[in-house]
Amino acid sequence: MRTVVVGAGAVGGVVAAHLVRGGHDVLLCDADPDQVAALDAAGLTIARQPQDVTGQDVVVPVTAVLPTALPERVDRVLLAVKSHHTRAALEPLRHRLAPDGYVVTLQNGMTGAVVDDVLGPGRRVSAFVNFGADVVEPGVVAQGNVATVRVGEPGGGISDRVREVAALLPYAEATDNIDGYLWSKEAYGAMLFATAVSDLTIAEALGAAAYRPLFLALAREVVERAPVRLETFDGFDPGDLEGSLERLVAFNAASGKARTGVWRDLAVRHRKTEVDDLDAVGGPLVHQVAALVRSIEAGERRCETANLDLLAAYERLERVGRPLAAVVEALPAPRRAPDGPLLGVQVAVKDMIDVAGVVRGNGNPRSMAEGAPAEQDAPVVARLRAAGADVFATAALLEYAAGAQHPGLAEARNPADPTRTAGGSSGGSAALVAAGVCAAALGTDTGGSIRIPASYCGCVGIKPTHGLVPVDGVTPLSPSLDHVGVLAVDVPTAARVLGAVADLGPLPALLAATALRVGVLVAELADPAVEPGTRAAVQAALDRLVAAGAQVREVDVAPLRALHATFEPVLLHEAWREHEALAADPDWFGPDTDRLLRLGRDVTPEQHAAALARRAELLPAADRMLDGVDVLLGPAVAFTAPGTTPVIDSEAGAVEGLFSMGANLTGWPALVLPCGHDDGLPVGVELMGRRGGDAALLAAAATVERVLGEVDA
C-alpha cells in the first residue's frame, strides 16, 4: 500500500525518510513549491540522525508533489501539517480518499474535529509524536532526538489499522488511550509555547527558578481541563508536575533541538503558529501566552526574555493578586516600545487612569459595567509604554478615590495579613507591589492615597510635586490636591518609573549617610494618636540614621499643621463639583461615598476661594521648614493597617490622613518607605522635600533605605 505523507516538513520528513529506508512506497505532498522542487531534485536529507550509527546525514530519494498533483485515489495518509493548515490540507483528499482509506494525524493539537468535518467520521487514526525536528532549508530536516510515538483510535481502543500504523511508524507503539497522550502533550505544549516567546532555549527557560511557578501553572491549567486520563511520556508526568520540570530540563538539554518549532516560526520564519489550537484549551495563563504569541506574529514584539517576565507576572497576578482582591483586569500582550529604560518592568495601573481600550472602573460597579472603553491612554500611561514598560493590569481602589469602599466590591487586602486592609485609595496598587506581583504600580494621591497604602503594605510610595506628572485622563477628585504617583518595591525602582513619566532631570549621586540632613517632625512622632508600636518603629529608624552619621535636628510642625484647616473646604467643594452630575442618580455611588461627596454641596465657591487664598498665604512659612535640611521626616500613618479602611469623615479616618494631607496642600514631593514592623505589620516613615526637588528627595530616600537595609541585613 502506498503511503501519502501530507506535509513534508519536520515531522513528515523524518517519518517519510524512515519509511523509504524501510522499503515502503511513499509519496510526499507539500504546499511549498520550493520544498517540493528541492525534494525532487536532491532527495530528502535527514541531518544528524541520532540513531544512525555512522552519525552522518542520511539522504533518501523521494517523490514529491504539490496538492494539485495528488493521485486520484489514496489509501493511507499521514497528515503532518501545522494544525491551522489542517482543513486546507484535507480538502484535496475529500474525494480522493478510498472508501476504506484513513488519515493518521501526526500533529500537535486537537485536529480531530476538523478531520471528521472534512472527511466524515471514522476516517482517522490519532498519533502522538514527540520527537524534535526542524526544517533547516528546503529538502533538509534536522532530527534532534528520539522520543515517544503512540498510535490509537480516537476515543480509545486498538484496532487492526492502529496495529498496522504502529508497525509502520518509527518508534511507535499502539495505545488504547491516545487521547490521554494528546492531552498530556497539550499541557507540555503550553509550557513550550511560553518558552518560545523568549530568547532562551527550552532547557534554560524550564530550568530557571524565576519561571518555575509559571510553567507549573500553565501545565496545571491544561491538566485540570483534560476530559480523559492523562499519560506520561519523556519525563512529563501529569501527576508529578514538579518532578516533570526537572526531567524535562534534562530531556531537552540532551536534545539536538534547542528551541521549539514555534520559536522558529516566530523568530526566524516570521509566520503564523499553531497558537489558536492552544488557546482553545482555555485558562487565563494559556490565553496570556496566546496573546503574546499573536503579538509577536503581528510584529508588535520580538522573542525576548522580557516576555517571559511578563508571563511570570501574570501568573503571580492570578495566584497572589486576585485572592487579595487587588486586581480589576489583566491586560493581554500590552503595547509598548521595543526598548527603553523600563523594558522588562511590569506596571499595574490604578483603575481610574485611562488605558486605551479599557473601561475606567473607578472602584464602582456601575462605572465598570456602563463605562465606555478609553479611546486613548492617559499621558502617564503613554509615557510608561514609550519607556518599554508592560502596563499589564488595572488595580482596585476605593470608590472614585473618595475615601470609602463600595459595598458591592471586595476591598483590597493586605499581603502582610489578608484580614487587614491594603489601604486607600490606591490599595490595589500597593497590594500588588508588596505581594511581589509586579515591581511598580501607578496610584493617585489627594490626601495620602499612595503613601497610606504604602505604609500599611510595606512598600515604597511617592507622591511627586503637584503637577509634575500629568493628571489628564485620570478621574479627578480634587484637582488642587490630586497627584499621580508611583508605588514600587524599592526607591531605585520608584525613581526609574517616576523618571520615565516625569521630567526629573538627572538624579543626584546618593548621599553618604553622614551628609544627610534630616528635619524631624518631633510633634508628629509624639502625637498621642500614634500607636506605641508605630512610634517605636519610626524612632528606631531615626536612631539608625543617627548612628550612621546623619545630621538630625527638630523642626516645628506648626506651619504645616496650620494648612490643615484649608483641606476640607478645598477637597469637598472640588469633589462635589467633579461628581455632582453622577450623584444625580441616587444609585450610582455607594452610601458612604455618596454621603461624603454631598458634604461638598454646603461649601460655597466663596469658602473654597478663601481656603485657596489662605493656603497660598501660609505656604511660605511651610516652605521655610525645609531650610537647612534635605528632608523632613515623620511617621507616615499613626497606626498599622486596620481591618478595613475608615471613612475619612470618621474619627479614625481623620487620624489616618493626619500626617499625609500636608504634602498635598503644599504640593511638596513626599515619599513613604518601610522602616520596621509593629506586631508583624509594616510601619512606614514619611520623607518630604521641596517642590520641584523630587530627584533630591529620591536620592535622600535611597540613602535612608540603604541605611535601614544595612542594619536589617
From TrEMBL:
<feature type="domain" description="Ketopantoate reductase N-terminal">
    <location>
        <begin position="4"/>
        <end position="153"/>
    </location>
</feature>
<feature type="domain" description="Amidase">
    <location>
        <begin position="302"/>
        <end position="698"/>
    </location>
</feature>
<dbReference type="GO" id="GO:0003824">
    <property type="term" value="F:catalytic activity"/>
</dbReference>
<dbReference type="InterPro" id="IPR013328">
    <property type="entry name" value="6PGD_dom2"/>
</dbReference>
<dbReference type="InterPro" id="IPR036291">
    <property type="entry name" value="NAD(P)-bd_dom_sf"/>
</dbReference>
<dbReference type="InterPro" id="IPR013332">
    <property type="entry name" value="KPR_N"/>
</dbReference>
<protein>
    <submittedName>
        <fullName>2-dehydropantoate 2-reductase</fullName>
    </submittedName>
</protein>
<dbReference type="InterPro" id="IPR000120">
    <property type="entry name" value="Amidase"/>
</dbReference>
<comment type="similarity">
    <text>Belongs to the amidase family.</text>
</comment>
<dbReference type="InterPro" id="IPR023631">
    <property type="entry name" value="Amidase_dom"/>
</dbReference>
<dbReference type="InterPro" id="IPR036928">
    <property type="entry name" value="AS_sf"/>
</dbReference>
<dbReference type="Pfam" id="PF01425">
    <property type="entry name" value="Amidase"/>
</dbReference>
<dbReference type="InterPro" id="IPR020556">
    <property type="entry name" value="Amidase_CS"/>
</dbReference>
<dbReference type="Pfam" id="PF02558">
    <property type="entry name" value="ApbA"/>
</dbReference>
